[in-house]
Design goal:
Layout lengths: L7 H10 L11 E5 L2 E5 H17 L7 E5 L4 H13 L1 E4 L6 H10 L2 E7 L4 H9 L4 E5 L10 E3 L23 E7 L7 E6 H14 L7 E4 L6 H13 L3 E4 L5 H11 L3 E4 L1 H9 L5 H6 L4 E4 L6 H11 L3 E7 L4 E5 L14 E2 L3 E5 L12 E6 L11 H7 E2 L2 E10 L5 E6 L4 E3 L2 E3 L1 H9 L4 E11 L3 E10 L7 H9 L10 E4 L16 H4 L4
Helix pairs in contact: 1-2, 1-3, 2-3, 4-5, 6-7, 9-11
The protein binds adenosine monophosphate.
């Protein structure tokens, strides 16, 4: 059954995902994509309304997690907007293994999976094992960017469900998005972002970058990660500007997209900027004609040399921001002229309050190094179903980020290191414990400790120290092949060391931070 919703309520559904509906011109372009006709805001509102009606008609509504497994592109964006207006969007990396899908789908208590037609075997198998119904995301002939229909007969049996009769959309306190964040000392944790967190974050980001309806964002970020979802897509659409939804970062296509779509900005992680710079010389014509107003970098540290090279090549300001999933992305940001940019710093608080705490929770003074802590309208209220993590994550209402930094005399934040053990591989975050557990499943592995190894381009790579069972022998490739069947490629350790014993810290505990140094990998 599809619930009929017409006229203003179609528009209303979209306004639940994006707040500033008043600015929109119905005929203005909302979504663009290579080889697809563009979709207007009216078209997007129509689509989101229809999809919400379809999902509500099947019994889905607020605070029900709906998994999304789609290739990067305009359908991922529109699907996210629709689901987050009505239920809880759970976008997942399509490259996950079946084991990973099984973990994520069950941990998130996903009640329905939306999967691209003809793709996602691993996700479908995991859903089947967990008895989660699946609907196909189907592109019809001549579909405009982001347009699709849902096909299948999944219905959720919710006794007496109110939204079978009238569509109940998300309110400010309902969970619009759930994402896993790499755990510090444990497995990935669930960050639940309510509609109000997403609205605060997209509004903060749009304000920081003075985004308007004249802007066009080029999204190259994966849309199962907060950076792309809030900054590149939602913030831009929220002020009435268009988003070009690419199939994901591809340096060979990047300059073609710049020439064809003429975006006014893009946001990426430093490794992408480095790849873009490496091909700049042969794309001088495209660069000369481009209309980039600024370039944004976030999710990992932007080397100062890359900052300068980008500004020189593109002739526009480069804005580095600090973000994290728990903050629905943006925390601090450098400014656009006339505001200042400070290479090597992540700028001023750009929405939430930011402070530096010592390990006892005391607020430190200017220039003193400690843990970066944040509070404000875009900061999550706590990890879901995880009282142990929440007990240490918050101090007097401040959320402790696990990042180490200081605030300088100008008020700018500088990130100096990380207290948490996650590995940041060019913006992709990896929980070491998750990799440990996979390695420990190998019959010849007695002990395994995964840790970050510094890497010139990526910032960090994945390393693992392994102690084999008595008398066993194995080589690194064999261990990697074993891991590859169980975890997505970016988590597979590139450096594997076989040791007799794993070095311990002074308390006898393994200390992942600094282990690469101790093992001579630096
Ligand atoms: P995620 O939750 O995947 O967005 O990752 C958040 C983490 O990425 C933060 O806690 C930082 O460790 C790191 N991060 C984000 N932005 C930056 C930046 N501009 N410089 C250095 N690290 C960053």
């Amino acid at each position: 059954m599809v619930i009929g919703i017409q006229g203003s309520s179609l528009k209303q559904a979209l306004s639940h995902a994006l707040p500033q509906l008043a600015c929109w011109q119905p005929a203005a372009v909302a979504l663009m994509a290579p080889d697809r006709p563009p979709l207007s805001f009216a078209g997007l509102a129509n689509l989101v309304g229809q999809l919400c009606g379809d999902l509500a008609g099947r019994g889905f509504g607020p605070n029900t997690a709906v998994g999304i497994v789609l290739p990067n592109g305009p359908e991922t964006a529109s699907c996210f907007l629709a689901v987050s207006a009505l239920a809880t969007a759970a976008p997942l990396n399509p490259a996950y293994s079946e084991d990973e899908f099984r973990f994520y789908l069950s941990d998130l208590d996903v009640k329905l999976l939306l999967c691209g037609q003809g793709m996602g075997d691993a996700a479908r198998n995991a859903a089947k094992a967990l008895r989660i119904p699946v609907l196909d995301v189907v592109l019809t002939e001549g579909a405009r960017a982001g347009e699709f229909v849902l096909s299948g007969d999944a219905e959720l049996a919710i006794a007496g469900s109110a939204h079978l009769n009238e569509m109940q959309l998300n309110g400010p306190d309902d969970f619009a998005l759930v994402l896993h964040t790499s755990g510090t000392t444990a497995l990935p944790k669930i960050v639940g972002l309510r509609q109000r967190h997403l609205h605060a974050s997209m509004t903060n980001t749009a304000r920081t970058l003075a985004m308007s309806a004249d802007d066009i964002s080029l999204n190259v970020m994966p849309l199962f990660h907060i950076h792309g979802l809030t900054a590149a897509v939602s913030a831009q659409l929220a002020v009435g500007g268009a988003v070009i939804c690419t199939p994901g970062f591809n340096v060979l296509k990047f300059y073609g997209w710049l020439a064809e779509f003429r975006p006014s900005w893009y946001s990426a992680v430093p490794t992408m900027h480095q790849a873009i710079l490496a091909r700049a010389a042969r794309n001088g014509d495209v660069i000369a004609k481009s209309r980039l107003r600024f370039v944004r970098s976030s999710s990992a540290a932007l080397p100062v040399s890359v900052f300068h090279d980008l500004e020189r090549v593109f002739g526009c300001p480069v804005v580095e921001a600090y973000g994290m999933t728990e903050a629905a992305h943006q925390i601090t940001s450098n400014g656009l002229p006339p505001a200042r940019r400070k290479p090597g710093s992540v700028g001023l608080p750009a929405g939430p309050e930011v402070t530096i705490l010592d390990d006892k929770g005391t607020i430190l003074s200017v220039g003193e190094k400690g843990e970066i802590a944040v509070r404000g309208a875009n900061i999550h209220d706590g990890y879901l179903n995880n009282p142990e993590a929440n007990a240490t994550a918050f101090t007097d209402g401040w959320f402790r980020t696990g990042d180490e930094g200081l605030i300088d005399e100008d008020g700018d934040l500088k990130i100096t290191g990380r207290l948490k053990e996650i590995i940041n591989r060019g913006g992709e975050k990896i929980s070491p414990l998750e990799v440990d557990n996979v390695l420990l499943d190998h019959p010849l592995v007695a002990q395994a400790v995964t840790f970050a190894v510094p890497h010139a381009m990526l910032g960090e790579e994945v390393g693992a120290a392994i102690v084999l069972t008595d008398g066993a022998s194995a080589d690194a490739d064999e261990i990697r092949d074993f891991a590859r069947c169980r975890i997505v490629e970016f988590k597979v350790p590139r450096h594997i060391l076989f040791l007799q014993e794993i070095p311990k810290g002074p308390t006898g505990k393994v200390q992942r931070v600094g282990l690469a140094d101790k093992l001579g990998l630096v």
